[in-house]
Amino acid sequence: MAGKSQASSGSSRRGFLGAGLTGVATVAGGFVPVFAWTQPAFANRATNDRPRIGCIGTGSMGTGDARDHARFGDIVAVCDVDNRNAERCRNDEGSGKCRADAYRDYRRVLDRPDVDVVSIVTPDHWHVKIALEALQAGKHVFCQKPLSLTLEENRLARSAAERHPDLQFFIGTQQRSDRDLFLRAVNMVHQGLLGDVKQVTVGINGSPTGGPFEVAAPPKELDWEMWLGQAPLVDYREKRCHYEFRWWYEYSGGKFTDWGAHHVDIAQWALKEDTRGRGPVRIDGTDAKHPVPFKDGFPTVDDCYNTSHDFAVTCTFPGGTEMVVTSRGDNGILFEGTKGRIFVNREKITGKPIEEGWDKDRFTEADVVKLYKGKPFEDHKANFYRCIREGGLPVSDVFSHVMAMNTCHLTAIAARLGRAITWDPAAERITGDEQAAALAARTPRAGYEIPRG
Q1: Which of 119, 121, 165, 167 is nearest to 140 (CA)?
Q2: What is the per-residue DSSP string for 378-433?
């Protein structure tokens, strides 16, 4: 595998990606370039100056992300354990443009010294392993949400980001780049316009139910053993694979980590519970049902979807604020404060504070720049490529995302066990419950270990 020095060779492209800018304005205590990092800004660069990108995981979401990345750089490699996905992305005029090299093994992408950026859009249980190996190879990383499968993977990802401060490690939580909806809601809470927020309801829907599903032969284009990766080796069932992986705890966390990675993230950002040492102290999973029987936190059948379809898990923070993560009611986030309440999702933001414009003159460009960590507001991936060029934390950074994912994984663990568990946010460990604590990590299958240093 290519080492960092190899991946950081002194080409003109690397110089462009790492050089400073002239012509800047000071905003909110930082330097903000006066131009936006739009598609034309990159398109007008010489080929040797444009980032070269490898896309790992090229199903429907992966190909969509690849098209977005292609606005800012050149897709030179695509990879998927299903050859059909790799070839489709390679031949897609919006991404591979019939010029990218196609691979089945992601390590061949990481071996390439000409790849500057990797986009990881695989099933969740592959995210952290590939991301950490990409950082070791000197690549900037875009990884789709949710970043991790377990609490332990959260810590490994954060440690890796700390070891590679010169590389961007960006998460695809695009709601952080929705100015009129989610940024407005976060700003309203930060400004204290709702008063003291003591209740938040996070609606994330429930997982689908289904099964039993029959064993079948894997498609000839799919490397099923490689797809399973660190997960236990099991027979192929069509509904375990591709998008349906989300509804199996072996590969994901159901809605807890699917929509939870978005809405819990926004809720904790608004509550300022998204920094290290913060988080809930009690997570009550007594009100949660699963579509199959469970014993000791594990499903007792292997031919049906097993993630929770009906739940209301209550997370209590040290100051007494309660956040209920639920499958019931509308998808979105309800903030209830002593002065007012608002509801926000991807379609609307409502409530008396919105109708009466309580944030008039309190949601300025400077407020948005502050939320964007000193960068100007722009498209989600534009922020990623700006940060590659300029440095600094992106709007969807690993450190805040890990805090949201801690809560998401804790809700899943409490639901799987059907009881309340306690969490020490400072030590980042489950306390007083050995069985629950054991679910904080998973031993990977031999040959698929995650880097630990």
Answers
A1: 167
A2: --HHHHHHHHHHH-S--SSBHHHHHHHHHHHHHHHHHHHHTSEEEEETTTTEEES-
* Region for residue 223 given its phi and psi (left: phi exceeds 0; alpha: psi -120 to 50; beta: otherwise): beta
Model confidence pLDDT, tens digit, residues 292-303: 999 999 999 999
pLDDT at residue number 18: 53
What's residue 127's pLDDT? 98
Of 43, 46, 44, the closest CA to residue 11 belongs to 46
Give domain 4-174+386-390's CATH architecture: 3-Layer(aba) Sandwich (3.40)
pLDDT at residue 324 in the model: 99
User: What is the pLDDT, as a whole number, of residue 22?
Assistant: 29
Task: For residue 60, give every residue at least 6 positions away whose Cβ sits within 8 Å of its Cβ, in sequence order, or none.
Answer: 243
C-alpha span between 251 and 229 (Å, rounded): 10
Dihedrals φ, ψ of 254, to 5°? 60, -150
User: Is it true that 4-174+386-390 and 177-370+398-438 share their CATH fold?
Assistant: no
| Kind of pairing between the strands at 24-27 and 30-33 | antiparallel
- E strands of 34-73, at which residues? 52-56
So what's the pLDDT on residue 33? 36
Secondary structure element (H or E) that encloses residue 41, with its range: helix 39-43
**Which residue from 155, 137, 385, 400 is spatially nearest to 279, judged by alpha carbons?**
400
What pLDDT score was predicted for residue 39? 46
The rounded distance, in Å, linking the Cα atoms of 89 and 59 is 8
Return the amino acid letter for 61.
Answer: M
pLDDT score, position 453: 80
Q: What is the pLDDT of residue 24?
A: 31
For residue 280, give the DSSP letter: -
Beta pairing class for 52-56 and 74-79: parallel
Instruction: Show the low-confidence residues of the chain (pLDDT under 70).
Output: 1-48
Domain definitions of the chain by residue range: 4-174+386-390, 177-370+398-438
The length of the chain, given as a count of residues: 453
Taking the alpha carbons at both ends of the chain, their separation in whole angstroms is: 15
Q: Which two tokens stand for residue 413?
A: 């663990």
Spatial contact of 135 and 169, defined as CB atoms under 8 Å apart: yes
CATH level 2 (architecture), domain 177-370+398-438: 2-Layer Sandwich (3.30)
User: SS3 for 312?
Assistant: strand
How much of the chain, in percent, has pLDDT values that exceed 90?
89
